[in-house]
TrEMBL record:
Residues 1-20 form the signal peptide. This is Peptidase A1 domain-containing protein. The lineage of its organism: Eukaryota, Fungi, Dikarya, Ascomycota, Pezizomycotina. It comes from Elasticomyces elasticus. SUPFAM superfamilies: Acid proteases. One of its GO terms (biological process) is proteolysis. Pfam families: Asp. The keyword Protease applies.
């Protein structure tokens, strides 16, 4: 939040006027310890996200981003995965079977009897996971605090049993049949629109920020280019927006001054901008081309899909990938190879191997393209859920003091429509 001060000189009088922006800033952070794997879906979700599995060793650089919130009155601390690809708040119940699976002592859990604002709906639900796991719990209403701001009567799931979950989840995607926290922040007047901006900072940084209801021009290289979210057309002709997907229209690899376009002309593929996926998943044929061009390979050697690895030393190569969106006037995000060389998996025959930040998925799969954290760290992404629009610009590290703009009812206030 910034404070604007005007000095109005009228005779000897000076008066001060303060304008407050309706934005909520929260830090998001990467854990420095390992969790079991598992990717959560929104309740009643119709589309699945893919499970991320580790290779070579048990180590996995999940690198998901967490947000600290409180639930209830007085607030009970929770560290939850921040997920643009799902839409539920899911918190484990203290002392439940779920807390024997999750590190509730570290990440938090919720004790409903200690909250004066807790309201049970009496309705149970089951939240499904891609890998076949699921969590059972109850819908409840209570106050959720994010970035110090209260969201009253937020409908959330209190998980009591299940499998496959690694942590609580704060889903901030498009609303399912119930309102998300970002929807409620806007509906309750804390922010001026259902929107937020995500800045993950670089791979070496342990934290980034989410700015609900605003954007920070000191964290990206202008111009910001605005492109439509892809909806799905229903039988009756209406359009539904379920996922933050945009059109990926060209991918090129760069090596020094040599640029190689890796996609066929006319390429256009829905690509989800998902904080809840640690890597970037491309259609198999495209992933194969990019993996080969950057000197990565599949593991185990001889396999033709799945997990990719790269010598860790490649992080200092002068290679990168350009991702182009929504045609020739749309945004281009450059992802340097330094941002794609992830966890060190171990040394084989004297070579240290790292996890590569790009994986392949069968072209036929639903959601074959997911631009996860290994992509998003190179971008500044503004999600305007009210107008089904996403603004993308190249990230800016060390951009100095914040310069925050509110996103009002008319949408993202700056940038070019592509
Ligand atoms: C979030 O909470 C955890 C656990 O209390 C703490 O270690 C961490 O520093 C917090 N992170 C931020 C960004 O507030
Ligand atoms: C991670 O997921 C895979 C595939 O679902 C499973 O086989 C493995 O046991 C999981 N690892 C842990 C530590 O839960
Ligand atoms: C989930 O789906 C069931 C069956 O269609 C429906 O009754 C229920 O209201 C839905 N729950 C939510 C939270 O959307």
């Amino acid at each position: 939040m910034t404070m604007t001060t005007f000095f109005v000189l009228a005779g000897l009088l000076a008066s001060t006027l303060t304008t407050a922006q309706r934005v909520v800033l929260a830090d998001i952070w990467k854990p420095d310890f390992e969790l079991t794997n598992g990717t959560i879906l929104g309740s009643n979700a119709t589309l699945s996200k893919r499970q991320f599995n580790s290779v070579l060793t048990q180590k996995s650089d999940r690198s998901l981003y967490w947000i600290n919130v409180t639930i209830g009155t007085p607030g009970q601390k929770q560290s939850m995965q921040l997920d643009t690809g799902s839409s539920s708040v899911l918190v484990p119940a203290t002392g439940s079977g779920l807390c024997s699976l999750l590190p509730c002592d570290i990440l938090g859990s919720f004790t409903s009897s200690l909250s004066s604002t807790f309201s049970n709906t009496g309705q149970s639900t089951t939240v499904g996971f891609v890998d076949g796991g699921s969590v059972t719990g109850n819908w409840f209403y209570d106050t959720v605090r994010v970035g110090g701001k209260a969201i009253k009567s937020q409908l959330s799931v209190l998980g009591t049993s299940g499998s496959g979950l690694s942590e609580g989840v704060l889903g901030i995607g498009f609303p399912a049949s119930y309102p998300t926290i970002n929807h409620n922040l806007a509906a309750q007047g804390v922010i001026a629109s259902n929107s937020y901006s995500i800045w993950l900072d670089s791979l070496s940084s342990s934290s980034g920020t989410i700015l609900f209801g605003g954007l920070n021009t000191a964290r990206f290289v202008a111009p910001l280019k605005k492109i439509p979210v892809l909806g799905s057309t229903n039988a009756d002709g209406s359009v539904s927006y379920n996922l933050p997907s945009v059109a990926l229209t060209r991918v090129a690899t760069l090596q020094g001054s040599t640029r190689t376009v890796q996609t066929p002309s006319g390429y256009s593929e829905p690509a989800m901008l998902d904080t809840g996926t640690p890597v970037t998943i491309l259609q198999q044929s495209l992933a194969n081309a990019v993996i080969a061009a950057l000197g990565a390979s599949y593991y185990p050697s001889g396999s033709t899909s799945g997990n990719a690895v790269i010598p860790c030393a490649a992080a200092s190569n002068s290679q990168s990938i350009n991702f182009h969106f929504s045609g020739t006037s749309g945004p281009t995000i450059n992802v340097p190879i330094s941002q794609l060389v992830l966890a060190n998996l171990g040394t084989v025959s004297g070579v240290a191997w790292c996890q590569f930040g790009i994986y392949g998925a069968a072209d036929s799969e639903n959601l074959a393209t997911v631009l996860g954290d290994s992509f998003l760290r190179s971008a500044y992404a503004v999600y305007d859920l009210d107008h089904h629009q996403i603004g993308l610009a190249q990230t800016l590290h060390n951009g100095g003091a914040a310069n925050i703009m509110e996103i009002g009812a008319s949408g993202i206030p700056i940038g070019d429509d592509a």
